[in-house]
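Justification of resources, computational component.

The compute hours requested in this renewal are based largely on the per-chain cost of generating structure records like the one below. Each record pairs the submitted sequence with a full structure-token output. That output is archived, and it is also reused by downstream analysis tasks.
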Amino acid sequence: MAPLSRRRCLIGLAALAGGKVLTSNRLAAQTSAAGTAIGLIDVHHHILPPVYLTEARDRIIAQGQGYLPSTVLEWTRERAIAELDANGVTTAIVSISTPGVSFGNVPAARTLARRCNEYAARLVSDYRKRFGFFAVVPMPDIDGTLREIAYALDVLHADGIGLLTSYGDRWLGDPTYAKVFEELDRRTAVVYVHPTGPDCCRELIPRVPYVMTELPHDTTRAVTSLLFSGSFTRFRAIRFIFSHAGGTLPMLAGRIARQGLAVKELAEQVPAGVEVELKKLYYEIAGSANAPAMSALMKLVPSSQVLFGSDYPWGRINGTLSGLNSLGLSSADLLAIERENALALFSRLKA
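The structure output for this chain reads:
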């Protein structure tokens, strides 16, 4: 077993304090096989329930555009748990990735969302505190989404709601979705936002898969849409998490803030300023634990707003871990990113 670094020991001790190391019989030891101290919380971790693979397999393959790790179509709960154990992850908050559950048939989307959420709830029940989940909803179906939010939060006790950055060519700040955000705000929900490829922008550059460029751009579009609609100001009780270090947002935040001063519509919606609103959001770092991305993000927000994520099974947990190890961050910042910030959002994990 590889020796533990000093800061890994600190993370392990922090997890032990107050009985925070979970006692599930699926958690084998206080250190993983890779020598990593247990205590990480992964907020960007996907599941592919059998019912979902049956319905969405062809769309997932097409979306991959030649880039589709074998771990995706071969996903099982057993392989997911082995990945957690090998990398010292105490809890994964799971979600359904793009393309979501809405494929043009409203009743079918409602049924698929319900079955995926019930599968996730069983996963949480079967492996106590190894998992949490963000419930998928049948957006852009507003009535179905409101019903699924109620069922997921009140009956299944989901940890939050998962949304995509856009549906068709409408981003989250669109007035069409106002009722959904009013309900999420009323419930002080955690809302995890995962990027997708909007209809407009999937074939922009020949031979370049849109997943490489358009997904991070779509996160920026979604955030900008929410800024211009005043959603961040109106729905202050929602705790938003955006994927992949905010996509391209950290690089464009200054531009949006500076030029936004001259746009009356934006200035009215964010009276405290663009950067104040962006600093209130949370950002997970799957696929982004590298020096340029993390430098930009951590110049935009404090470490208290940064969360650990892996994008498993599209990505691997040790990819984020090795990237974080290379950044020279302080033990305090690493502990916050890898565990403590998530505990502040998901208080049930503290018990």
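Residues 54 and 214 are 26 Å apart (CA to CA). The beta strands are 40-46, 89-95, 131-136, 160-164, 166-167, 170-171, 190-194, 239-242, 282-284, 306-307.
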